[in-house]
């Protein structure tokens, strides 16, 4: 059996998608039988946190070049690691294609998709991708929330879907507070002697960055917000300027993966007020690094966080702010969340995820349901 993992463009800069592809391939390889192999359509070729190249070049590769390469491949199983790429499945490959569905966020935020995609082409490709999921051999959802959303929106057969959660690699772990690299990271980003609230992710509308900034501005003035990823929208920039938050803000549009581990360890807590999440990998990464988490109940976040985080309704900005203050002011509260998060993160391993994917691969290759 030969498995080929595609459905991603390294230059697009979607770090969580790249980490998922590389982690599954790395951990599944030793689990396959003699004569079996698993390959990536594109080798890692660098850091998952690198910047994206020109958007037109990325779109050309995503919409035309990669689908053409997959259409003529000889793999027994084709695994598209991102449901955004499902529109490019050749009709003769449906019966051997597995797709990982991370979320269907545009349908939840705006059924017309007009607030997410600028033009007709984007809406066309996303609609085609969603329709294609119903014709694939199997769709793996990263959470039960995503699976329920998929079954509500697409004409997928329930018995051709399953849930395999995402996971974290072992290098996402707590570091000694005196670690030299951690000290250097703090100095490099102006965090020395500061209490740090961290947010990791894009600035897309569903991330609720306006809510993040409103919560942050209510926190004590010695608290710094380390924002990793994305570019602030004009209204968010205006909010920052209006409330004089710039001196308390450290914004990095990207970090390498080693630096991301340092960011989690440098933070006193992760604040994640998203309106919807198909999974919420930064919540899990923070827990694995021993960083307390305050988050909303948007989408799959309660499913991932369990009782190991302070979880509030999406619109309860005051409640999230109060939880942040309690964690920052109370070492016992922070320690309890740290211990609970570390214990919960241990249940999400790439070894377990890869084993589940191998079961799906073997079933699809044999023409039966997993």
Notes on the structure:
This protein is an alpha/beta fold. The chain is built from 14 helices and twelve strands. The strands form two sheets. A six-stranded parallel sheet has the order 2-1-3-4-5-6. A six-stranded parallel sheet has the order 9-8-7-10-11-12, sandwiched between helices. The protein is globular, with a radius of gyration of 21 Å. The mean pLDDT is 91.
Total number of beta strands:
12
Widest sheet: strand order? 2-1-3-4-5-6
Low-confidence stretches: none
Strand content: 5-15%
Alpha carbon gap, first and last residue? 16 Å
Shape: globular
Radius of gyration over C-alpha positions, nearest whole angstrom: 21 Å
Percentage of residues in helical conformation: 40-55%
Going by helix content, strand content and strand pairing, the class is alpha/beta
Could you give the order of the helices and strands?
Answer: EHEHEEHHEHEHEHEHEHEHEHEHHH
- On the 0 to 100 scale, the average pLDDT is 91
Number of helices: 14
Main sheet?
Answer: 6 strands, parallel
For the structure shown, list the relevant keywords.
370 residues, alpha/beta, six-stranded parallel β-sheet, 14% strand
SSE order and pairing:
Blueprint: E1 2-6, H1 15-28, E2 37-40, H2 55-71, E3 77-80, E4 97-101, H3 105-109, H4 120-133, E5 138-141, H5 144-153, E6 161-163, H6 180-188, E7 195-200, H7 209-217, E8 223-228, H8 234-242, E9 249-252, H9 257-266, E10 269-272, H10 281-288, E11 293-296, H11 301-305, E12 310-312, H12 317-329, H13 331-345, H14 350-365
Parallel strand pairs: 1-2, 1-3, 3-4, 4-5, 5-6, 7-8, 7-10, 8-9, 10-11, 11-12
Helix pairs in contact: 1-14, 6-9, 7-12, 10-13, 12-13
